[in-house]
Amino acid sequence: MRPSGRDVSEMRPISIETNVTKHAEGSCLIKIGDTHVLCTASLEARVPPFLRNSGLGWVTAEYGMLPRSTGSRMRREATAGKQGGRTVEIQRLIGRSLRAGVDRVAMGERQITVDCDVIQADGGTRCAAITGGWVALRLAVNKLMKAGDIISDPLTDHVAAVSCGVYAGQPVLDLDYPEDSDAGVDGNFVLTGAGKMIEVQMSAEGSTYSRDQMNTLLDLAEKGISELVVAQKQATES
């Protein structure tokens, strides 16, 4: 039995509210159970120096956790003078994942920065950030297209992410914090709406895993991703 009482293949409740901030070109508040992440997308008429005069666009991301997003207050990284290794790793993952679903030629020479701020954490924050980050990106691109700034849609497919793991010897979908902190195997799966894999992060957290178990976790991830894509479509096409 999972601590939440969910079935092994059951996602937590998914909620995506769009246009939650006034100034960002695209924004959403994504809730996956008790994990809540605010995602905003900002358009900029510039690209990094290594892309100047290339005709290619760029999508990048920043990620952070608010001090009371967890059970005890965390110190703001800004007060420490630098980002932690976990933060840097996660925001690079978000950026890589979102770029995998973008035609950077069609995007033109401009940058979209996706900011993901964790308001409340209960496991799977990076996955919620990727899933919500795509929604914010979609809304920002919609504004570009509506204004006639780009001719063809640069977003080639949906991008979403979900965690899976082996908890109490059982492969399970969408780990919350109690499961994540005690899982024998932990994995994050980033896929496109068509089921193509972008990134898979799998690690043993005290026990090894078999090829069959990995295949089972991938099957669970595909099920979870399909549900997340439905939520993305409902949020952006309504």
From TrEMBL:
Q: So where does phosphate get bound?
A: R86, G124, T125, R126
Biological role: Phosphorolytic 3'-5' exoribonuclease that plays an important role in tRNA 3'-end maturation. Removes nucleotide residues following the 3'-CCA terminus of tRNAs; can also add nucleotides to the ends of RNA molecules by using nucleoside diphosphates as substrates, but this may not be physiologically important. Probably plays a role in initiation of 16S rRNA degradation (leading to ribosome degradation) during starvation.
Query: Which GO terms fall under molecular function for this chain's record?
Result: 3'-5'-RNA exonuclease activity; tRNA binding; tRNA nucleotidyltransferase activity
Supply the name of the protein.
Ribonuclease PH
Sequence ranges assigned to domain Exoribonuclease phosphorolytic in this UniProt record: 10-140, 159-224
Entry keyword GTP-binding: no
User: Any idea which UniProt keywords this protein has?
Assistant: Nucleotidyltransferase, RNA-binding, rRNA processing, Transferase, tRNA processing, tRNA-binding
Q: Does the keyword Transmembrane helix apply?
A: no
Question: Which InterPro entries does the entry mention?
Answer: ExoRNase_PH_dom1, ExoRNase_PH_dom2, ExoRNase_PH_dom2_sf, PNPase/RNase_PH_dom_sf, Ribosomal_Su5_D2-typ_SF, RNase_PH, RNase_PH_bac-type, RNase_PH_CS
The domain of life is: Bacteria
Tell me the classification of the organism that encodes this protein: Bacteria, Pseudomonadati, Pseudomonadota, Alphaproteobacteria, Rhodobacterales
PROSITE patterns given in the database record:
RIBONUCLEASE_PH (PS01277)
- UniProt similarity note: Belongs to the RNase PH family.
Q: Which GO terms describe its biological process?
A: rRNA 3'-end processing; rRNA catabolic process; tRNA processing
Q: What's the EC number here?
A: 2.7.7.56
So what does this thing catalyse? tRNA(n+1) + phosphate = tRNA(n) + a ribonucleoside 5'-diphosphate
Q: How does it assemble?
A: Homohexameric ring arranged as a trimer of dimers.
